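S., here's the first fold you wanted:
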Amino acid sequence: MRIRATVAAVTGALALSAFAVPAAQAAGTPGPAVTFSNVKVNKGKNIVVGATAKVSVPVTYTVTHPASLDPDTFATGPVLYRGTKITSPTGFQGGDEPGTCKAASSTVLKCTAAIDIRPAEQDLLNSEAGTWKVGGLAADDKERLTWQGDLGSAKIQRLSKLTVDASPEPVKKGKTLTVTGKLTRANWESGKYAGYTGQSVKLQFRKKGSSTYTTLKTIKTDSKGNLKTTTKATVDGYYRYSFVGTSTTPAVNAAGDFVDVK
């Protein structure tokens, strides 16, 4: 598995870039005497990643350094990791570029950065959906590294999709409608979307002219993520399926399918 590390130093000016490094090299030699705090990933929201598209996650953080240490001599960036220690991670996500920092005082920097996740390059395994730890990395012009872990947590989830189709359309009042659909989620390892099996999904109805959906019943997806049930047609309105989500997969609602009742 490739571990994306936010580490590099270039002569004359520092930058952080993404490249593959063995986890065993993560510890390195102690680097600049800086500490990270107030790290906020994706504005506190879960990170949702599709099957192939790159996701750039915004991060804000604070860096504290000795007054004697020139901020121009080191670069910093946030990271996400899995495992007990940041220096020996079982999963790792970093940014393509270093953080951009502004001095708040002689010892404090306020910084912004991005963590770049590329599922198409196998940055993620399906089993890694869920909670990740937050850390920070600093590098100086001699390629010495400072790692700081346990700065919080963030959740990376597999993007979900949900469809619905109610038929026949139109339908006579009191007749039976068959409502089908499918719940899928990103498979990071295949680069496709696959059925999410055995999940509870609500069938909901919104009367024409109303803005509120009411739950009619709850059913489960089959072995391929398919949904199928029946209901009685009463008045014109919209049918949809609604999934509340799990720790690894976000909630999603299908777009309402309008049925004209005669």
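And the second, which I think is the more interesting of the pair:
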Amino acid sequence: MTTLTPTRGGTVLPPPAPSPSAARRRREGGTILAVPALVWYLVFMVGPMAAIFVVAALHWPGMLQPVTFAGLGNVRTVLDDPVFWEAVRNTAVQLAVALPVMITCAYMLGYYVAQRPPGHRVVRYLLFVPGLISTPAKAMVFYAALSPDGLANGALKAVGLGSLTDAWLASPSTALGCLIALDLWSGIGFTAVLFAARLSSVPDEVGEAAQLDGAGHWRAMWRIHFPVIRDYVGVVTMLQFLWTLFGSAQHVLLLTQGGPGASSTTLSFLVYQKAFIAADLGYSQTVGVFLFLTGLVGLLLIRRSFRQTY
């Protein structure tokens, strides 16, 4: 706010401009305050990211083993490994199925909750429950449901469909699907709560105007409200993309160990497997570089797809 200073003769003068030295001191003070955050970012963010590329160029058969330079040898080893390509296929299927289904269902649930139907507060809490359960507990729930003597097979037998029973987590044709189902179960409710919170901030006049124009809920949901929060949908999609891409290793580790064979091995689990089980750190971080580049390209594509067009 600018303060005008009256003079003796009644003339109003603007305040004196700050001296260049004062402005320079303020800039220097802001820079000094930013130094701790910058150091933290360089040490704990940029440093590990650069280390991935360095280790990917090394032949390192274990933490206490001698290290030699491998150059592009690890890249050739990875590209010649059929397990790597199986992991690429599984990761692509996981993203192609889980991400669209999760975002679409979560948005529709979030829109429903944002309309404040009877009991909407209870529904909101119930949707958030999977986000409050730890990953091992969620894995145990799915293990109990999908084991040969679990709830799924028991329900099929109870309704006379015993011929459809299967060892779901031990079958090459269903193991990856079970992991995708776990991703959806644990992610849809939490994401729906995020969408409901954002949709609740949309002015009520927008929905009322759509109703006056004769728009039903389906049209209002996709043609009116979705464009308003399109950028937020993009942010949530990016977060779920990163979680699915990088966080699937824990579900694989707890439920299938990547098997049978490599039918449920994903890229993030392959990084863990090669580093901590096979003790091949060079191979592991080469896959990590590929995973990093995949995540970067995916984020750019999602951002471009959901950016506002007005």
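Why I say that: The longest strand covers residues 5-6. DSSP finds twelve helices and four strands in the chain.

Talk tomorrow,
H.
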